[in-house]
């Protein structure tokens, strides 16, 4: 049960820590001096310091159990959510004080910090009613406490400018409420009734747009001035617009140069024989994509817009329709229309935008990582022997490298910068 | 009266009843009708005497006279007796009576004629009317049948319509029902959820109590030493002041955000206004100069008529950055107006242009067609002339060659031809020599480039060898990871070098291309020597475009 800290550039091991149990969750503090390791089974959180390897800290929740743990924005407080969401305990690393937040809501995103780390919004539920409490992170003082008009709050998210809080309801009801920092209800948006509602939301980095992905396979964009819908993006199974570029991943037949076969086979040759290279072809529009209609009698159906992400320069929005799991849809926000569709051979697992440029990295569970930028897209094979199934990826904040994670291994992919 | 006889014949043959009807015009009292019949029937000449003799015989002259007298007096004629009593006939009165009777007869005949004419007319009218009636009846039947058909269709469509309405209503009812079901289920579900949640909350409370009551010593934090705050400050107590400060901070954040947004909007607004102003100016400049209409000033409250004044005013106002309603309205209204005028102007221009264009096209077409025909005729004539010329020339040539003409003239001619040929040959030799020189130059530059390439390659190989050696040496000290990382870059470095080499070779190729430019132009003429046969064979084709000179030369070549 080790925690290994490596250098991001050279992957050199800098520190090695041993924890008491299997680590379920790790998080860096905001000043990158401490690392939090949460072991939910034992209900323990251990904190390690990078500067002083001898320093240790252990937080034991005991019989209260542990379900979630995270840092506060100042990097000196740890918020533990106990089992059954009985309470949230705020442990301080500077003082001996402990604070409790009662009745937290048991939902996916019940805790949200503003980007500048000043305020924290907590979703609560008392007497079958939802409430939001806004705390000041510096001294954990309750700033505002108000109720929300939701049936069963599903998630909360701050806008990047820290002034608006988006609160959305359970998927049984399509309702999103927008509250100002001081607790006033700014606007309510409800696109339709009765059908399954909101699946995912994303704020644009400038806080100008709020993208709402719903179970009816559409993304609706609200603007920050009137909080009304300005456009709707549809994700049909047939892409018919002539101005959309559709990149289709095709397998390249491996070029086996029989003359150069040597024994024992070199590493590169082995790779090329067992792994299939792939490349992108531009398909002619209209293109029909693989559409899956899951059984209607199961809960949490794989339908609707499951993933939404804005690019860091606010120009593109990448979406994934769970009905068409092999495709990534990239929308141009300046023109508010579909710009590119990436059609992969396997189902898309995750994608993430480069924090600096409009560059999207996509992984589909095989050993390739796919990159798209307005200049084109490329499929990159991870040069390892054997299988390396990329389950998730994570960009470095400088945009020069990214970490690719499989179930048991990980590798770091470095990207060359264009020297102009 | 000329038809007297013709009238009488049918009268006799026809029924006495007809006459009875036709003469209804005459004012004759009904009781005397029968007797009148007897009077009016004019018997035919044959039966006349027999009829008359039947009435009056020698025995009953007096009786018949008295009878006649009685009849005449009843008719209103004077008595035919000489005096009131006595048996002597007053001849004059008899003659008068006869005359009057004849006149009456004539009148009656005429009346009869007229009546018969009318009768015929009426008969034809009636026929005509009967035909019309028959036709109309037919038409009526047809239209009745049509109406029945249309009514039937109408009924069918209405029933269909009713069915569809019914279906729609059913569907709507179903939808409503389903929605009601959904809403009722939703409320039921919510109620159940709330109940379960309350139960769950109770459990949680109980659990919480249990957990807290145990006072687990385990629930604690072990820290080696407490860490300082991130910003280095000490923690502060929570007091009212801090509360107020927090509130203030929050409001400051909100306000700054709003202010920023408002600034952005103002900037956008100002830009848009500028753009509108520019557009307005440009539109006004495009429009033809408008005459001032002083009436417009009084119409609206806003001053819109004089564009220059407008610009001046608005410019002044914009300088002060007033964004009040009236200024905005003014600007947008004036722009709309100008745009409309421009649109109209463009439309009228379009119409004009299309008219002019269509007219021009027609003329052009006409002219060009005529011209075209003339030109083609001219060209055809020219072609004919050329062909004839060529033929004659060839004939002459043939004659020249075949006929044993004077030696002098042939020699002279031959000399001329030879001179020409010689000159041509000399030119071609010159060209050939030039080309040879160029080829030599190119060959030399090629060899130089190849030598250079070889040298560079050698140098590169040496560099590569040295670098690989270095790499290998350094490999033993580094981790394997760095090898993985730097290896690709090494490959990239070598490919860069390759790119550079390629570029240098491509640069050398360029001068070669430039040199070969003029050479290729001259090559067109050299085939005469290289592929003589093919050239002459090709030139045998009597193409209209081929120059007659070449033809002549090829002919000379053949002989020589």
From TrEMBL, chain A:
UniProt xrefs under PANTHER family: WD REPEAT PROTEIN 8-RELATED, WD REPEAT-CONTAINING PROTEIN WRAP73
Domain of life: Eukaryota
Protein name: WD repeat-containing protein WRAP73
Organism, as annotated: Chlamydotis macqueenii
InterPro entries in UniProt: Centrosome-WD_assoc (IPR052778), WD40/YVTN_repeat-like_dom_sf (IPR015943), WD40_rpt (IPR001680)
Cellular component terms (Gene Ontology): microtubule organizing center; MWP complex
Coiled-coil regions listed: none
Pfam families given in the database record: WD40 (PF00400)
